[in-house]
Specification:
Oligomer: single chain
Structural class: alpha/beta
CATH class of the largest domain: Mainly Alpha
CATH topology of the largest domain: Serine Threonine Protein Phosphatase 5, Tetratricopeptide repeat
Number of strands: 11
Order of helices and strands: EHEHEHEEHEEEEEHEHHHHHHHHHHHHHH
Helix content: 40-55%
Distance between the termini: 53 Å
Length: about 425
């Protein structure tokens, strides 16, 4: 069984050598489609032994990938991007040993992708970040990662091609052609989600435009509307636009569970907790279970004054998140909810424990300040705000401390922390 690496690239000279080196022992050849590089990427790729074809860029990732695919003549195809590395722990024999002639095994494989993040508090879809286990030395400086799966290893056959102007995938064609899908050994390390500043902002704007075009071109594609909703929600905080996209998705496919989850998240951020609970409850009925879902149910319950129920949701969310990222915020929210439900002792214990577990989270400090204000503990509120100000200096924090110094006469400002902290 022969394997060829297939890639599309543009201005990828800084990453390409490491990417190709990671795959070299697994693949028999490399086909790289360059879409207009100006940094010497094409020459570098040729120097590294790849076959390079130059193609025009047409604002269509699937079209570009299919042009690259057309130049592949191997039995199997492995797809990578320049900001990815094939896991060194997946020995060549392991990757290649799962490939079989047609009819003897899967025709395509879901590959686990580790998306490295710049914050342990990051979230990708409904998944929290996990602490970096330093499996990939190149990612040592990044604190966390989040996994997802995508079809990146598949049989070269006429039935399989990429679909989608953006967020393109071979996956839909696997099912449509009646081919078999397996789960691959090994993983891919991805660094593209750790971009910051204008580079990430520019990428977000471009993906948004392509996503809008994709949804317009494929009005009956529930996935296209969901993807656009994600972009509006996560990258631009356009919650009304996002909700409209999720609702279009659900009209086409009522069983699209994540659209119910994100519809609930959009409604919650728009200030409609009762309606949010309806969406989140439907997701739970469809079998969705995640710490984020439980946390949002807690947030909605808190905003509706259902403090005991909210505390139970936060407790369940913390259990669901055990071992996967920082759950001190959930402990803090549980403490504030218990306090409001009447359990002052346990509420303050949890609030203070959460702040001690992770003092680098400003919201853990904010909830403790808010709890002290609500409970009428003047000196406790001041002490908590002074501690916060020492770690997170700034004009807003200073003004809040000034308001607390005249507490309770000007208590309205710090009480507003309740609104901020519970989101």
């Amino acid at each position: 069984m022969t394997v060829c690496l297939s890639m599309i690239v543009r201005d990828a000279a800084a990453d390409l050598a490491a990417c190709l080196a990671s795959a070299r022992g697994v693949v028999d050849g490399m086909v790289i489609a360059d879409t207009g590089s100006r940094d010497g990427t094409a020459a570098l790729a040729r120097g590294l032994g790849a076959q390079v074809i130059e193609i025009p860029w047409e604002d269509d990732y699937a079209a570009a990938r299919n042009r690259a695919l057309a130049a592949v003549a191997s039995d199997w195809v492995l797809v990578l991007d320049a900001d990815e590395r094939l896991d060194a722990g997946g020995a060549p024999a392991s990757w290649r040993g799962q490939l079989h002639p047609r009819g003897d095994g899967p025709d395509a494989f879901q590959v686990t992708i580790r998306n490295y993040m710049s914050s342990v508090g990051a979230r990708l879809w409904d998944r929290p970040a996990e602490p970096n286990d330093h499996r990939c030395p190149e990612a040592d400086a990044l604190p966390a990662f989040i996994t997802h799966q995508n079809v990146r290893l598949f049989r070269r056959c006429p039935e399989l091609a990429f679909v989608g102007r953006v967020h393109e995938s071979v996956g839909p064609r696997v099912a449509a052609a009646g081919l078999r899908l397996g789960e691959s050994r090994g993983c891919i390390h991805h660094f593209g989600l750790a971009l910051e500043g204008e580079r990430q902002a520019g990428k977000n704007r471009y993906y948004r435009e392509l996503g809008r075009r994709k949804a317009a071109e494929r009005p009956g594609d529930a996935q296209a509307h969901f993807e656009l909703g994600l972009t509006e929600f996560e990258n631009f905080h356009q919650d009304g636009e996002a909700l409209a996209c999720f609702e279009r998705c659900l009209r086409l496919q009522p069983g699209f569970t994540l659209a119910w989850v994100y519809g609930g998240a959009a409604l919650l951020r728009m200030g409609h907790p009762a309606e949010a609970l309806g969406f989140l409850g439907e997701a739970a009925q469809q079998g969705h279970a995640s710490a984020w879902l439980l946390e949002m149910q807690g947030d909605a319950g808190y905003n509706l004054g259902q403090f005991a129920a909210a505390a139970a949701c936060y407790r369940a969310a913390a259990r669901a998140q055990t071992g996967r990222g920082d759950d001190s915020g959930l402990q803090s929210k549980q403490g504030l909810s218990l306090l409001r439900a009447g359990d002052r002792g346990e509420g303050f214990r949890l609030l203070r424990a959460a702040r001690e577990r992770n003092p680098q989270r400003a919201d853990n400090h904010d909830r403790l300040v808010a709890a002290c204000v609500w409970a009428g503990d003047r000196e406790g509120a001041r002490e908590a705000q002074r501690t916060r100000l020492g770690l997170f200096p700034g004009a807003a924090a200073s003004r809040r401390l000034e308001a607390l110094e005249s507490f309770p006469e000007e208590a309205a400002a710090p009480i507003q922390v309740l609104q901020e902290a519970r989101r």
